[in-house]
Amino acid sequence: RRGATELNAKNKKVVVLGGDGFCGWPTSLYLSDQGHDIIIVDNLSRRNIDNELGCDSLTPIASPAERVRAWEEVSGKKIKFVNLDVAKDYAELVELFKTEKPDTVVHFAEQRAAPYSMKSSKGKRYTIDNNVPGTNNLCCAIVDAERDIHVVHLGTMGVYGYGTSGGEIPEGYIDVTLPGGRESNILHPAYPGSVYHATKCLDAIMFQFYQKNDQLRITDLHQGIVWGTNTPQTIRDERLINRFDYDGDYGTVLNRFLMQGAMGVPLTVYGTGGQTRAFIHVTDTARCIEIAINNPPKKGDRVEIFNQVAETRRVRDIAGMVASRTGVEMKMVPNPRQEAAENELDVSNKKFCNLGLEPLTLDEGLFDEVTEVVQKYKHRCDPRMILPATYWNKARAEECEKKM
Ligand code: NAD
Ligand code: USQ
């Protein structure tokens, strides 16, 4: 039904960097199901961070070996898994591109939690040291391997900043009049709200450079907050289940609220809940990526940028939706983050819609799917991991402590 564009479609060989993660795993299965040949690359750092934080996915996720075995059993399709650190194992990455000759690399392999990136100097430094070299290695390895590989990168809506732009946020570029009166169309100014979001701004500049210098073909997807758990592929076998993060660092807001609602724990609305953010269901993440894979920019074209979002909502409104379905009350907690208390957000997603995407929205009954998953696994929840444990700076930590 929705969004599988046939434009330029052919079966491709796709390397999925970060294919063991929350977005990467269901995307790998979706692409495999559509007939693409998939190689997952992941260093399992996300699983290790769970160990470090003392928490775990609410859903019991199988090992990578078991996951790909189960997929072959249920679909008859093979997925190769390669354990490699994109930020460190440069020679192996070049070799992989030379031997496998992929058409496309989808790049999910970054530390993606804003709170984890603000937890401590360790979190800040790790996030920069992992994400920035990873993206540079990817671009550099494509040049070294002398392959014309299309890069599809998962960026974030957060590169635009929240509440700063006024009017609809365009897809990546804005018209400006430069000093002296020259008209130009440039990358939208970057205005990150965390060290993590800053790495995505740096990625965008690097992509601009490698496109200009080496004519790399790059699509940067500015994605909103992903929600949901399973997709039509991950639901096919218990061993294929997707991860579900609910803790204060990695859990994203809507999945956290749905989990809290099912647990009967008051919904943790930060500040006034006036923050407006963009949302997309995980099933549409996978569909959007296939559309991007099937519609690469031509060699020499500037970086293609899509806003990968379905809709925008205010945090207190989504908490209200969950509260009215579950009967669980909202609890306004002091905001641990340095962010605007209230903002408007209007985002263009015309490019995906023009290519056939009809995105799922929060009104379409998918809350039930997440609620069922949470009910099934709530015995695995550690309630100590629910409250936020990371503060953006000393002033926020002191204020939160005073008000708690
Ligand atoms: P995730 O942490 O679940 O998955 C990332 C995967 O990358 C993990 O499996 C991790 O082990 C792997 N990885 C990290 N660094 C690596 C390295 N150096 N080498 C090899 N593998 C590495 O995150 P996710 O939620 O699936 O997000 C994937 C991408 O999508 C991220 O880049 C994120 O910024 C972007 N994104 C996510 C969301 C969201 O709401 N989850 C929203 C917008 C954008
Ligand atoms: N929030 C609450 N209560 C909670 C958790 C969060 O009120 O219990 C608020 C936060 O203060 C924030 C908003 O909800 O204003 C969103 O927080 P989030 O943790 O769901 O999302 P964020 O930190 O922005 O990061 C997530 C992903 C990241 C991705 C980003 C897309 O972890 O990888 O890049 O969403 S976006 O927000 O569009 O930039």
UniProtKB/TrEMBL annotation:
Domain annotation NAD-dependent epimerase/dehydratase: ranges: 14-299
Name recorded for this polypeptide: NAD-dependent epimerase/dehydratase domain-containing protein
Hydrolase keyword on record: no
Source organism per UniProt: Triparma columacea
Keyword Transmembrane helix applies: no
Domain of life, per lineage: Eukaryota
Alphabetical keyword list: Signal
UniProt similarity note: Belongs to the NAD(P)-dependent epimerase/dehydratase family.
